[in-house]
Amino acid sequence: MNTNSIQPEGITGVVDRVVARWRHDPTCMVQILREVQETCDWLPPEAIDRTQELLGVPRTSIEGVAHFYSFFYTQPRGLYRILVSDNITDRMLGNMALLDRLCQSLWVEPGKVSEDGLVSVDTTSDTGMGDQGPALLVNNYAVTRLSEARVDEIVDLVRGKVPLAQWPADYFKVEDNVRRADIMLGHALKPGDALRAAWGRAPAAMLEEIKRSNLRGRGGAGFTTGLKWEACRNAPLKAGQQRIVVCNADEGEPGTFKDRVLLASHADLVFEGMTVAAYAVGATRGFLYLRGEYRHLLDSLNGVLERRRQEGLLGKGILGVPGADFDIEIHLGAGAYICGEESALIESLEGKRGTPRNRPPFPVTNGYQDQPTIVNNVETFAAAALIAVHGGDWYASIGTKQSAGTKILSVSGDCERPGLYEYPFGVTVRQVLEDCGARDTQAVQVSGPSGVCVGAGEFDRRIGFEDIPTAGAFMVFDQSRDMFEVARNFVHFFQHESCGFCTPCRVGTSLLKNMMDKLHKGLGSRFDFAEIEQLNQLLKATSHCGLGHTACNPVLDTVAKFRPAYDQRLRRQDFMPAFDLDMALAEARQMTGRQDSGAHFKTEFGEG
Amino acid sequence: MSDTFTLDGKTISFTEGQTIMQAATDAGVYIPHLCYLPELKPHGSCKLCTVKINGRETSSCTMRAAAGMVVESDTEEINSQRRALIHMLFVEGNHLCPTCEVSGNCKLQATAYHLGFMSPQFDHFFPIRRVDASHPDIWLDFNRCILCSLCVQASRDVDGKNVFGLSGRGIKSRLIVNSKSGKLADTDMAVTDKAAQVCPVGVILKKRTAFKTPIGERTYDKKPISEVPDTPAKER
């Protein structure tokens, strides 16, 4: 974005400035590399050399991080680094045709850098703009509502080397699209209201209110928030330790974008919830871990934190109470879905590769730098702020018995009004479909690729921990959609996002991707179904974390419910090899420029 | 004072803080494993040591034993999962046993024999990986790396050197060397380092020793891996 700006200080000057800003602290490695790249456009070897000199850590620990996160580049990637969001909902809106148009106009191959080194174009996992796609990131800033016209304008801006800051502001406009507000999206609290309510009780009484509310984690797993907080509060502190509150805003599940809106328009409520949590568990340090795709929110969120410090709502002596200390630092992710897993998130906060830890011990006793840590979702903290003001009984009276309160759904796909819908728990899938203007609906993917695919016969099922738990994604597919391609998109997603730590997920997601691609090419057989079934059992039984446990779900769900989408791809009933003689010659044809009949195999392999 | 749990019906005693793997090993019961060595902190990544505890699968190298646990390990269901994991490791890298100088001393190969894994049916990935022969006494053949991290840990925790590290993500994960050039010769690795002794496969190799012990007379040629304890610093 601003390569010219490295000229006065040079690469080592940039690294010196960034490392000093992050207190020469190796636990801030992800932030240091991110900021160096923001100025240098990539991570040149001199930058890694200098970082190593200043921090005194092994070079492997810098390179290991730089090569783990998708958004870090150790090779030049151009002044403009364009990443087209590639969730299935972007595909349904024609992102691939727009990607082609972009690449052809810019004379660049997908995944590569243009010959003049100006621009690179690639795909990336869902960027959290499902309600206003197709979307892309340029140098990590979100551009929404792509059209052919907008793509053509972007091409001109890139060719003209117009700095990003001078691109039309409308490109970067991110709408909230709140379609149905309830207690959370419609709250009327002012900054400080929840804190004053919390401080009006003893910390233990505040924790008791949370327990009475029956609030459960909104990240998908639904662990009881009060129990998590209590375990952290009761965990012993060793000398020099403190308790930590972490807000998980690594909203990476494809199809989810509610946290984006909560942080864009209700940041005070979220920070207030974190501060209430800190009060209840006795924590003094907090982090917001924001996904790299939401870079556009970083400056305004830091602004909110600064304002809160000035208003006495954050920092030392909150509300004028001596000793009531709690502050929040924002760490930005760099393109790794796995960091939404709480122990991987903590590793990332510590400046490491985002690999899930062995558990037990759990973060509530041994979290950030081995200190007692709670990690909760953005929406969970917002709910905690509401509970501080209105009380646990009030909250528990909303929703259903096992699912108290409301849930914000991120609705996208085939419907007239995509956006956020907040309902008390217990709402039926059918009701949501009616409200969002969905017609001829074939299926809904609830809670993203790791969730559940709901077919038309199940639309009376209810959103809630009793029936369909969800982190919030609600992707709608009408009758025109090919559910096999939906599942294949999700399988590619898991393969791309597997951290590689454990054997079953690292290799299994790649095997699964290859099998789905084989079916896609029309080379599938019943034998492949048996293989997929076996892989699923293996990944469920032996994977290290939830990513591997759920990676086969999209395939198994769609095989069970939309079998014809698979059957039409079966060329033979028993077995079909993945190897195709004619396809094996494709590279040779490309190299020689031949397309004549002599360059093709006509006969089919193994006929009869 | 010690408590007990059952492993495939056999009563195993353990002391407070021991993992299932440690207690089983002490009792002379073999649980297949590749990324675990008794003298290093359990890593828990290969998943070969997955067992069922009270009906639920867990890595036995990281799970602490508790009194009364009912643990299953040597069952057809679990061994079939282990065969699939071995299968994955074979197709992920470039493992050509007949031409590999550690054939007979290789834990991947020996564990595959132990579990009755014979030939792969998944398509091979045939990744392109480097060989590093820059060091005077050691060469590295990354084709065979199974990402167990034992060398990373041994170098860091025992040798105090940090010669190795993991890089990349997912199927592109790879072992890297701690030098600007990326070459082993530019590190302070010595052939006597612990890190040079722990590789379960044929990545970290001592030069000029390849066939000192002929094929047919090697560790797992003589005895199956289930009968060979993980002795520290085994000479190859």
What does this structure look like?
The complex is a heterodimer of chains A (608) and B (236). Chain A has 25 helices and 14 strands. By secondary structure, chain A is α/β, with parallel strands linked by helices. In chain A, strands 5-11-10-14-12-13 form a 6-stranded mixed β-sheet. Chain A has a 4-stranded mixed β-sheet with strand order 2-1-3-4, covered by helices on one side. A 4-stranded parallel β-sheet of chain A has the order 8-7-6-9, sandwiched between helices. In chain A, strand 12 and strand 13 form a beta hairpin. The longest helix of chain A is centred in the C-terminal third of the chain and has 18 residues. Chain A starts with 5 loop residues before the first helix and ends in a 16-residue tail after the last helix. Chain B has 2 domains: 73 residues, Ubiquitin-like (UB roll), CATH 3.10.20; 129 residues, Alpha-Beta Plaits (2-Layer Sandwich). Chain B contains 5 helices and 10 strands. In chain B, helix 2 packs antiparallel against helix 3. The longest helix of chain B is centred in the middle third of the chain and has 17 residues. The C terminus of chain B is likely disordered. The interface between A and B is large, with 43 and 39 residues.
